[in-house]
Amino acid sequence: EIVLTQSPGTLSLSPGEGATLSCRASQTVSSNYLAWYQQKSGQAPRLLIYDASSRATGIPDRFSGSGSGTDFTLTISRLEPEDFAVFFCHQYGTLPYSFGQGTKLEIK
Amino acid sequence: EVQLLESGGGLVQPGGSLRLSCVASGFTFTTFAMSWVRQAPGKGLEWVSSISGRGGSTDYGDSVRGRFTISRDNPKNTLYLQMNSLRVEDTAIYYCAKGGRYTSVDSWGHGTLVTVSS
User: Fold this and answer.
1) Do A97 and B100 touch (CB under 8 A)?
2) Of A27, A96, A81, nearest to B101 (Cα)?
């Protein structure tokens, strides 16, 4: 099983700042099949990025994904108040599919 | 607009069974793989199972293989998860998800809570 390790566990930033979230895989993610999701309290996750760097429909361009192989990054430029939430990475290239443990982005 | 509406959750004793359903609308159901993903209270996400568009291929996570069965009824636009031999550690919100079989999940239902407790 591919283990995804996200860092940091918690990130404290202010609106207007930029955020960098990391997701490291224990093995190469096949075809860079790596997605990022945002989950707010009491809600279902929302797809932000798929295939490592493609933005999902309706996602603002301040969200961007990068990386390949085993190291992936979600970057949020110019944080808005509604961006604060928990973020998960997810690999869907190798069975069993797996999720990272999450990074909580909180308001400083 | 894609809509996924889960039902069937509830309280069940260890060793018991439950069947979850998910009615889909807003897209051509048979064209897409579907999945179940769960989230234990206060925890992260765990992929449970996926099924191909026509239902001919299924995959399971190690923790549920042999106990859970995913299926779909395409004429009814409905996805199912039959859960047998339930354990306390199966307690979670179960999300119905569009995609997830060698694709990202691009839409999620609101989830249905399954509680396994004596």
Assistant:
1) yes
2) A96
Q: What is the mean pLDDT of residues B48-77?
A: 97
Q: Give how far the C-alpha of residue B8 lies from the chain's centroid of Cα atoms, to the nearest Å.
A: 11
Q: In a 3-state reduction of DSSP, which class is residue B76?
A: helix
pLDDT tens digits along B18-61? 999 999 999 999 999 999 999 999 999 999 999 999 999 999 99
Q: What pLDDT, on a 0 to 100 scale, did the predictor assign at position B43?
A: 95
The answer to whether the CB atoms of A44 and B109 lie below 8 A apart is yes
The length of chain B is 118
Q: Quick one: average pLDDT of A48-75?
A: 98
What residues of chain B lie within 8 A of the CB of A1, using their CB?
62
The beta-strand segments (E) located in A2-107 are 4-7, 10-13, 19-25, 34-39, 46-50, 54-55, 63-68, 71-76, 86-91, 98-99, 103-107
Tens of pLDDT, residues B83-110: 999 999 999 999 999 998 889 999 999 9
DSSP3 helix / strand / coil % (chain A, rounded to 5): 5, 50, 45
Q: What is the spatial distance between Cα B48 and Cα B59, in angstroms, rounded to a whole number?
A: 8
A102 backbone φψ class: left, alpha, beta (φ>0; ψ -120 to 50): left
List phi, psi (to 5°) of A55.
Answer: -80, 135
User: Look-up: residue for tokens 């490291």?
Assistant: A24
Contact: A51, B104; criterion CB under 8 Å: yes
Q: What pLDDT shows up at residue A99?
A: 98
